[in-house]
Amino acid sequence: MKQKFLIIGIALIYIALSIVSALDGGDFDVFLDAAIKLNNGQNIYVPPFFKGLQYFYSPLFALVLIPFSWSFFVTELTWLLLSGLMLYRSWSLIKSYFDLSVLTKKEISIWTGISFFFIVRFLLYNISMIQITIFLLWAILESITLIKNNKTLKGSGLLAFAINVKLMPLVAVPYLLYRGYFRSVLYVVLFSFVFLFLPALIIGWEFNSFLLKEWWLIINPANSEHLVEASTNSQSIVGTIPVYITEIEGALPYKRNLFNLSIETVEIFANLIRLSLVLLALYFLKSPFKKSVSNISEIRAIGYLLMVIPLIFPHQQKYAFIFLFPMIAYLSYYSMVMWKYNRTRSFKVFLVFLLIISINYTPIIGSDIIGRFNYDLVHHYRLLGISTLLLIVAAVYADPKTIDVTLKNIKTTF
Fold first, then answer.
1. Whether 153 contacts 190, CB under 8 Å
2. For residue 31, what are the CA distances in angstroms to 126, 156, 194, 231, 233?
3. Residue 413, class by beta-carbon neighbours within 10 Å (0-12 exposed, 13-18 middle, 19+ buried)?
4. pLDDT of 414 higher than 60
5. In this predicted structure, what is the pLDDT of residue 315?
């Protein structure tokens, strides 16, 4: 009964926050403004921009939003409520990978609470900014589940649409390829081509082709603005690493750079780190063209692919770190199982390390709690990006085989 009231209370708070955010407006204003411009036959990728913010998304996404652009408030409130449902569904999908029989009901509730506690900061950013990141998270998890359940067309279509909206779900394509879902990969590619040219049926071939070229001009990864980012809000590799290896002016007058490398060298170094993170995925995925040996190994692999999204893609701000949700759930589960059944000295050291770096993911890191100066200092030194790089170290240590062996020994004993 208490749990039921808690869920109702959280839902009411979420609805209240959604109403406030929809009244204030957010990034979704930019999407709806692009829809209005597209409906008027304008180029959606050039100024003037709503609130001065560039529209980085596809022509199809703007086209889909045209029928909903009549009321920003109604559309944005509806979107936030749908996002809440998608987050709930994402949690259900994440939970399905774990053996919860080894935990009591109370422990499951604690695990759930811990997993959400460490993403609530990013959830609040997504609500206040009215972002689409929760949709992308859900689309990746849902499409993988559909494909694994032999619903290839639905899963591939959903993933292709998510990629069309924003390129970040692309990380799921090499995952599917590596797992041997070749037909699904083929369908994703086919659907992606369809979604690129589908708007031509309504806006015409020439105008759609023109918009696709304009879109590519701003998302081209070779653009200089995508290689080194000076913005305080950027927490990706290209926003985090450069401030430590070359002199970049920040919002605060405090030195950050340990070296003074040339911009060209910085670009190469940052890209090498991004490439290293991509290649590290092979460690988590293990043997190619084979299904994962266990669900717990699978969620760690998926969690890794999602957690590197805000690191390897440019222009990633705080709200993008909600992609850490599956990995945080995995590390929380790992910690609870090991604490309960196999509390070794090395695990205790790991747990202290994990708790220290996880401070950056808590709601404590807010200007209302730690003060504006300290909050700006956290951003100045890109501590969110640094913490996430360190979280990868924790993910490497937390081997699912340790859980499997521990639980096997427990079940054998009893």
1. no
2. 15, 24, 21, 22, 20
3. exposed
4. no
5. 83
H helix runs in 67-197, sequence order: 72-95, 105-117, 120-129, 133-148, 152-165, 172-178, 182-197
Angle CA(399)–CA(298)–CA(414) in degrees, nearest 5? 60
The residue length of the chain stands at 414
Q: If you search the block for the tokens 């340990």, which residue do you land on? A: 258
Whole-prediction pTM value? 0.96
For residue 338, is it within any domain? yes
| Residue 340 falls inside a structural domain | yes
Which token pair is 329? 């759930």
Phi/psi-derived region of residue 25, left when phi > 0, alpha when psi is between -120 and 50, beta in every other case: left
384 token code pair? 């969110």
* Distance in angstroms (rounded) separating the CA atoms of residues 126 and 378: 19
Contact 278, 312 (CB under 8 A): yes
CA distance 317 to 25: 18
For residues 358 and 388, the answer to whether their CB atoms sit within 8 Å is no
Domain hosting 348: range is 221-413
Bond prior to 253 in cis (omega within 30° of 0): no
Q: What pLDDT digit, counting tens, does each position of 30-49 carry? A: 999 999 999 999 999 999 99
Please report how many Cα atoms fall inside a 13 Å half-sphere around the Cα of residue 28, on the Cβ side.
Answer: 31
Evaluate whether residue 3 is within a structural domain.
no
First to last CA, the chain: 32
Contact 252, 288 (CB under 8 A): no
Residue 83 domain-assigned (yes or no): no
Which tokens belong to 300? 């760690």
